[in-house]
Write a structure and sequence with these properties.
about 70 residues; mainly alpha; elongated; about 85% helix
Length: about 70
Amino acid sequence: MFTRIARLFTIKTKFEAFMVIYGLGLGATERGVHYVHEYPGVGGWLLFAVCPLTVFMAGTRILDSVERGSE
């Protein structure tokens, strides 16, 4: 039963990976906008810039895992 539920949360294809990365990107930019409003000036913009960078790092890891799983 647990394995059937776990399969629902497994990313199997590149399309699924890109959809997850897209969702992460939307959330990261939304968080970045909040940072800019809460911390005006350079500090807020630096925090804004870091948010999408984490999505890039996570996205490459997700895509790499999907590519290795299909081999």
